[in-house]
Specification:
The chain has 453 residues and is of the alpha+beta class. It has twelve helices and 23 strands. α3 crosses α12.
Length: 453
């Protein structure tokens, strides 16, 4: 940890020798002490302009035009090189709030899932109402402003309001106070942070690429094991199923309907969220169905009447749970233990293997690229993605002899655990790099560390 931290502190750009100097209290809690020669300024007094935009009315003549229209989803805490949507000249003429902002400007998301996200424009564009655009005065480096706002994202979120969708108002942004060093110092800090951020981001990207390759490898290991087996040199035969290809000669091809019992909750039967109780019977939903394990802790509970009204989906150890709705469609896991009596909501299919199928083997079979590709093809494209029970029942499955299923299950448990441990190490490295970057930015824009040219 310390070795790579020193390499980032000392390497790149020729800047970044940190020194200590006389400090004073800034009077701003999140800033703390700042160098004696620095000032604290309200953001509004440092901006040439600050504003937002709007969403044009639903009119085909307003969209797919020649003017870039920035939405908060385009903000990635980096330079804004391109946007996903455009508007026409007519849209700008017909909507007074839809103005064109010059570059470079700093943009921050005011609400929604991306609240607090930032970007720097690289060309003139328009924005929607969830974006706040700031153009700086000559005595404020726009990149320094970007880093100053990036350093206080957590603080900004504490200023948001609204229960359903938290908001930050433009007035809140205007009233923010930031540390304001001399312009030459701002320039040095911005240049230094550009260099260091680029190095850290590149290291993070490399870690992510390794993680992606590890996940691809894990998927290949699973698919190979459940379609070809783990015993080398065995005679093979055509499976008769295009996406499976050859299988060991002694394996059988069957269907879910023959080897398992697939069922799901028949509607909600009027169940509403306000019927949840503080303690009772576990009521699992798709967020509880994770790749690593089933989350039995962060759950809702229902009363006995609601639990007993659907006895066919009361869970037992060995049941395989498959998300059949929404963004988590295809996520699967097996009930290895039950901390309490439990059932599922209508978005989860309960699959109970019959005597010739091992539960853990079946879970890995569903995880395989073979079945995941089928699930993607079977999704109902109208509205929310959905997988029907009748579709699951039709899927072909490979069925080795039961002892061999256990061998494959044991092999995959060990192999996937090994791969997952490596992935976790890489993810931890990303967390440390991200935290270091945040700390470095904060210490530089508040003067805790002096950046010399």
């Amino acid at each position: 940890m310390e070795a790579w931290r020193r390499s980032f502190d000392e390497g790149g750009g020729g800047a970044g020798i940190f020194m200590t100097r006389k400090m004073k209290d800034s009077g701003v809690e999140w800033i703390g002490e700042i160098p004696e020669e620095w000032n604290i300024r309200k953001l509004n007094g440092l901006l040439q302009s600050i504003g937002s935009g709007t969403t044009p009315k639903s009119n085909p003549n307003y969209y797919d035009g020649e003017y870039a229209w920035l939405n908060t989803g385009d903000l990635t805490d980096d330079l804004i090189q391109n946007v996903n949507k455009t508007v026409t000249k007519l849209a700008i003429q017909d909507h007074s709030a839809l103005r064109i902002y010059d570059a470079p400007s700093v943009v921050i998301a005011l609400y929604g899932a991306t609240i607090g996200k930032l970007g720097i424009t690289t060309y003139p564009l328009t924005v929607n109402q969830a974006c706040c655009v700031m153009t700086t005065m000559p005595d404020l480096n726009y990149k320094y402003l970007f880093y100053a706002l990036l350093s206080i994202r957590k603080y900004l979120l504490t200023l948001s309001y609204g229960a359903g969708q938290p908001n930050i108002s433009g007035e809140t942004i205007k009233s923010l106070r930031i540390s304001h060093p001399p312009l030459l110092t701002q320039n040095r800090i911005a240049s230094f942070l550009d260099t260091k951020s680029s190095l850290i981001d590149a290291a993070v990207q490399k870690e992510r690429e390794v993680i992606d390759k590890l996940k691809e490898y894990r998927q290949a290991v699973i698919t190979e094991a459940v379609t070809k087996g783990i015993r080398p040199g065995v005679p093979m035969k055509e499976s008769g199923v295009e996406w499976i290809g050859e299988i060991p000669k002694h394996w059988i091809i069957s269907r879910f309907s023959f080897e398992t019992w697939v069922r799901a909750r028949l509607g909600w039967k009027g169940l509403k969220a306000d019927e949840y109780v503080d303690a009772g019977y576990i009521f699992l939903s798709t967020p509880n169905l994770k790749e690593e394990k089933i989350d039995f802790e962060n759950v809702n509970y229902i009363n006995q009447f609601r639990y007993d009204e659907s006895p066919e989906i009361k869970l037992t150890v060995g049941d395989v749970l498959l998300a059949k709705d929404g963004s988590t469609l295809g996520t699967v896991n097996v009930v290895r233990n039950l901390p309490n009596e439990a059932t599922v909501n209508g978005s989860i299919a309960v699959i109970t293997p019959k005597n010739n199928v091992n539960s853990v083997y079946l879970m890995y079979l569903i995880k395989s690229s073979y079945i995941q590709n089928i699930i993607r093809c079977l999704k109902d494209g109208s509205g929310v993605p959905h997988l029907f029970q009748r579709d699951i029942n039709k899927i072909y499955i490979t069925r080795p002899p039961l002892p061999e299923q256990q061998e494959i299950a044991d092999y995959l448990e060990a192999k996937c655990s090994e791969i997952d441990a490596t992935i976790q190490k890489r993810e931890l490295a990303i967390e440390k790099l991200t935290a270091y970057k945040q700390s470095l930015i904060y210490e530089c824009v508040t003067g805790k560390k002096e950046v010399l040219g």
